[in-house]
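Section 4.2 – Deliverable D4.2 (structural model, holo form)

The reporting period included a commitment to supply a predicted holo structure for the target in complex with zinc ion. Inputs used:
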Amino acid sequence: MTTGRATLRRDNLSRVLRHLRDHGTCSRADVVEATGLHRATVSSLMTELMSLGLVREEGTSTAGAIGRPRRDVALDGSHVGALGLEINVDYVAAHGCDLGGRVLFSARSGFDAAGAGFSGCLSELVRMARLASAEMGPLAGVVVAVPGLVSEGAVTFAPNLGWRDVRLADLLRAELGVTVGVGNDANLAALAEYTSGVAAGTSDMVYLTGEAGGGIIVDGRLLRGADGFSGETGHLPVDPGGARCGCGRTGCWETKVGLAALDPAGATAMGPEARVNQIASAAAAGDTRTLDALAEVGRWLGLGGSILVNLFNPRAIVVGGYFAQLASRLIPPAQAELERRAVAGGRCTIVASELGFEAASRGAAGMVVDQILDDPLILIPAG
Ligand SMILES: [Zn+2]
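Output (structure tokens):
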């Protein structure tokens, strides 16, 4: 088979699978009509997809009473385990699903990533993947979400983890024996928000992590940039005379809105969730210093948001991480500041994510599913 024909075959398998994913159970005739492919081609594609265990026959189609009854077809893939992992400053999270998006595994555990060093982080990711696999069964693929610059499976720079030029995908593949990809946490979270979050389907939106890292969706697609580095919004230089950032520069947006900006004294032994709970309690009790600090962070959130609005004209800015937990205190001042500063701010709404800490790992699992839907033949073991 020539390369051109192999590519065509792969694309056709993908078209059929995506149709079944988006439309549920249907007849072969439906697939023929929807894809515009020849009947015999669809028949042969179905046979191949069934042999891969990705399509199953279901029920009996009653349409057309003449001739043999035809069996409907549906996406199967319940045995295909897609795992998304996220490593962040203070936790590791996992989200596993099958090809139809059914959740098979979900976990998060506190972890001091910077303190553990890179090899400690690698061990923790391997531990989490094995835990997931023990519950989900064999993994078809893994994607890891990382808070940093990612290029072709390597992490170029992740200042908050202290990583520089690490070949994460290769190292994890060697440990786990499956295909491994790596993506930026905010970009993957943005994809999860776009497919299943509070602003799902909003074709122009920005997602912000709790450290103001951004994932930018323009016209329904993730904006990647020349090197895949777009969305480093946490390092927008919003205050050139400001504090030093983990990236080595000064006055980055994350130094104004990250949890450390809100609660500089709290960074010691207490985990981030306990700190956020403490801040919420102090605010509820009317503590003036806390309320002032929240209003100040809210204003900086709106100021940075106005830059994004002027650049990308999003309909929504979805805020995740701790911003979502303190949304009722942060969003009103942020929205007011955004409308005051942005030229077209009135039509962009800041909303709190409802995916919580799951956003990035969910997006990562979604990317594994997408890779399989794009090229189902990657499920055939090499050699
Ligand atoms: Zn920075």
